[in-house]
Amino acid sequence: MTKSDSGKDITLRIAQQPAADELLARSPLAALVGMLLDQQVPMEWAFTGPYTLAERMGSDDLDAAEIAAYDPEAFTALFTTKPALHRYPGSMAQRVQQLCQYLVAEYEGDASAVWRDAGTGEELLRRLNDLPGFGTQKAQIFLALLGKQFSVRPTGWRAAAGAYGEEGSRRSVADITGPESLAEVRAYKQEAKAAAKAAAKAAKATKTAKAAKTTKSSPKAKG
Length: 223
Prior knowledge:
With 223 residues, this protein is mainly α. Helix content is 62%, strand content 0%. Helix 1 packs across helix 3 (43-56), helix 5 (72-80) crosses helix 6 and helix 8 (121-130) packs across helix 9.
């Protein structure tokens, strides 16, 4: 995946580490694994994970068949060895192995086959959503990443990616092209998290007020 479908060279600035970003740019599986790891840890940490994992496996790339067949305990050890590959290394090691087992079973171990012949954005979203560890949001973000930075653009890909597919947005890893955009995406995420927290607090307060009003207005039981 060093070149996009249009033949242009791909340069990523997601991991903020040249060697890790170079692997993400040329390895479809590394990109998928990075996306899988991108939860509850800084984005740079998540997307550096595939490079660190490949190093610990003694290779310059990741191989789905090798990972799928790896002894589970030994594979977990690759994640838990300090520095750990994730905040939750044990569970994420299991998810990565499940992802690779699925790719072997459904796509002969070829990660790029997930999107190579997808005819529409909706079809690609469905395929991504079927991957172990990929919910709708993660699938939409990765779809946006494919479209924006890898030129994988089946018909309707922006619509299928939802808000993450919007041109010029700064919502997710799909929009990171360097330190400045990384800071903008991080700021957006913090704002969204704060807004969600405030909304939850307001909803709880409203529910409490309604419950108190109902209790107050309820007729007293007669003796």
